[in-house]
Amino acid sequence: MSHTYLVIGEIRGGKLRQVTGELVQAAKLARRDNGDRIVAALLGWQLETFAGELARLGVDQVLVADRPELEHYNPDTYFPALSAIIEETTPHAVFFGHTAVGRDLAPQAAALLGAGQISDVVALKQDGGGLLFTRPLYAGKAFEKKRFLQGPIIATFRPNNIPAAEPADGGAAPITEATTPAPAGNASLRSIVKTVVRKAAGKVDLTEARIVVSGGRGVKSAEGFRPLEELAQVLNAAVGASRGACDAGYCDYALQIGQTGKVVTPELYIACGISGAIQHLAGMSQSRIIIAVNKDPEAPIFQIADYGIVGDLFEIVPLLTEELRQALA
Ligand SMILES: Cc1cc2nc3c(=O)[nH]c(=O)nc-3n(C[C@H](O)[C@H](O)[C@H](O)COP(=O)(O)OP(=O)(O)OC[C@H]3O[C@@H](n4cnc5c(N)ncnc54)[C@H](O)[C@@H]3O)c2cc1C
Of the residues 242, 252, 257, 310, which should be mutated to test ligand 1's pocket, given the most ligand atoms within 8 Å of the CB? Predict the structure, then answer.
């Protein structure tokens, strides 16, 4: 029997989120060679361009729920639309990003289908006729591998772990309006989102950035983040922070990385003036390459760093910035 893999795409900051392409790739890894289909769904408002982009990623169909009341995420409006899409596609698996939206919707979908859920998946492969999912445990100190004995499967995928699907040869998949229920009217909503104001969190999305330059209490002030911002600009990187830096008021909590902040998996993580507390490592230890700049040679961050520079960040970071500016020019 052929299966349908349903991918729930996301739009953020006027762009199709990179994790959407990663979910499509995950569905391609999950699909078997017997007529399995990949359906990508987008919920929102004025989706034409994003749906077109998604349709070129090698999916079989794009389903859109394109309605004004879906402009901002609200579980009261999104879940009925998602339920209708699930009913229409009867999926064997539904893949979400491990994002604020995905983490909110996935358990609701699991409850709807009476299905099991696996969260924060970092790898997926075919294994003996089934799918084997890998997810980190204990703040990244261990990994568990899980398989489902039966479908439907609900999974959320951590951004930046599976390479995103590239636009495929062979044109675009058909884009169809999903049959979603008519808006129930504001009276039935528990909340109404009128506008979304994003915190100043830099130009590059922290959770999807390829490079992150992070500052800790060692930056000593809000002004102390300036050299890190300059380095980030040269590398087209996102700026992050430890909770130490956030608690001290040097930067906004939107930048916090760690157990109680964001989880990032960039190709390169540059930690400046961060001691390497376990709660910070929980948010960045899966980064491909870690560089630490710290004036204390005993700082625990050096135990997980691939490259360590012992010294004053206010001397080293500007030097790095200048060298890289010239090298990348
Ligand atoms: C329940 C709980 C949840 C938590 N969640 C998080 C979380 O999500 N994220 C998080 O980050 N923390 C979290 N913490 C806090 C965590 O335990 C640490 O307190 C915090 O990470 C320390 O931040 P820091 O490394 O910036 O500061 P510090 O530990 O004070 O380290 C500062 C470092 O800067 C170095 N330094 C100082 N000056 C310079 C200089 N000029 N040049 C170079 N190096 C310099 C010092 O040698 C030191 O190693 C949590 C704690 C708890 C209890």
Answer: 242
Q: Residues 184, 190, 194, 195: what is their CA dihedral angle, to the nearest 10 degrees?
A: -120
270 Cα: distance to centroid of ligand 1 (angstroms): 14
Question: What is the tens place of the pLDDT at every residue in 242-280?
Answer: 999 999 999 999 999 999 999 999 999 999 999 999 999
Say if ligand 1 is within 6 A of residue 294 CB.
Answer: yes
165: left (phi over 0), alpha (psi -120 to 50) or beta: beta
Helix spans in 136-218 (H): none
- CA distances 329 to 168, 200, 210, 267, 325, Å, are 32, 28, 19, 21, 6
DSSP label at residue 319: H
pTM of the model: 0.86
Please state at what angle helix 226-235 crosses helix 313-328, rounded to 10 degrees: 20
Q: What is the DSSP letter of 210?
A: S
The pLDDT tens digits for 224-246 are 999 999 999 999 999 999 999 99
> What is residue 13's predicted lDDT score, i.e. its pLDDT?
83
